[in-house]
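MODEL INPUT / OUTPUT PAIR
PAIR INDEX: 1
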Amino acid sequence: MEIIGRYNPRTNPKTVEFDAERVKYWLSKGAVASDTVHNLLINAKIIKGDKRRTPWTPSARTRPPNRPRRKKRRPRRRNKFANNKAAGPARRFDDPRLLTTLKAA
């Protein structure tokens, strides 16, 4: 593997450096640049041609191509027994009345 350039988008202005001779050499040997690198090479005037459309081009799409659509959330179901006062207080498992009914059964 050979490093033929670098790109740093965090500097102001963005840093783009390529070894033009090596880029042309590898492209002549059949290397294929990604869409983004191809567009950077065109901006640096190392190669000529039209820019390629990338998934991140604002006019291409608003969401990444492989990201699934979000499912609509269903509304939460209310517990129909939550406010039922007729059922009485909830019994715990250590309640002796419950233990006797379990043993009798």
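PAIR INDEX: 2
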Amino acid sequence: MLSHDDHRRRRLLTPKEAANRLNITVESLRYYALRARTLPYIAIGRKILFLEGDLDLFVTKRRKPNAPDVLVELENQQGVTNSSPAAPASPGSTEAMLPDVLAAGIR
């Protein structure tokens, strides 16, 4: 017998349902599935369906690190030790570079 989570992952969604779940347009959903080939789908005749678990994986693969993750990564790369949170950021510090790193990741 399938668990609730297994059953949910195997649930088939229409393009409209899948687009609503991802908060994107149906046109964008079709692009990811048919042109970019980054979103798996099931074709039955002319009908296209999406597994709910595939949508979850699609979102997980596109998750970008948040600011604290970027800050820790920069500190590890630069060998920066614990600094006082109350101390102002010096021009070459990780904290001062954070807006530039975030801006570079948005482009």
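PAIR 2 NOTE: The helical segments are 4-9, 15-22, 26-35, 52-61, 67-78, 94-106.
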